[in-house]
Amino acid sequence: MKAMIFAAGRGNRMRPLTDTCPKPLLEVHGRPLIVWHILNLVRAGITEIVINHAHLGNRLEEALGDGSAFGATIQYSGENTALETAGGIAKARPLLGEEPFVAIASDIYCPYFDFKQVETVLEDNDVWGRPHADTKRDVAWLYLVKNPPFHPGGDFSLHSFTVRNEGEPKWTFSGIGVYRMSMFDSIQPGERVPLGSILREYIARGQVGGEIYRGEWKNVNTIEELEALNGSATTFNKKT
Q1: Rounded to an integer, what distance in angstroms lies between the CA atom of residue 114 and that of residue 228?
Q2: What's the whole-number mean pLDDT along residues 171-177?
Q3: What is the mean pLDDT of the chain?
């Protein structure tokens, strides 16, 4: 399985830090946010990684290189302007291939997430070994978390490992998901498309599974959140 890390966002709420440093290179406990993901993926045996970028993308490539320093192989999908998540996946499709892949938001901190579990969540067959019909099998698997203070209403509900648009209680999408590439067939490379609307369409069809992740998870959106995680002054990768 391959992985994609979304790193094309501008990080406006993190300015002025992100005026000169890509948000994924901001450090938590002495390590860039994106490196936490890379190391956790490699630990799980997922070593082929695609990273999309737009703002200060050259800084990301300089800092991470070809991935060999981490035991990974990293390829980059550059975007002139950020294409949103689904648009970014469509553009990176030649690098990702056609098999299911895991995608991670680069601005979350979840140091203990075990990526070994993602390789088996999208089943092609039922419990008797019979192939699922295309209209019945899950096309995505989402990891949901407890609603953070900045998003108290949540995103989706969960019933017997099936994600639903409606219902209670609501949970927040963590930014970690596993997807079949067929979800993005209608998107042309270079088209700017968010993931949310596509997800909700498949959720309405009953084709998105999920589970609750209860480990440490933080969405790092502001300088204050970054400083709180570090317990002191903000740090960032100073490589130029």
Answers
A1: 24
A2: 96
A3: 89
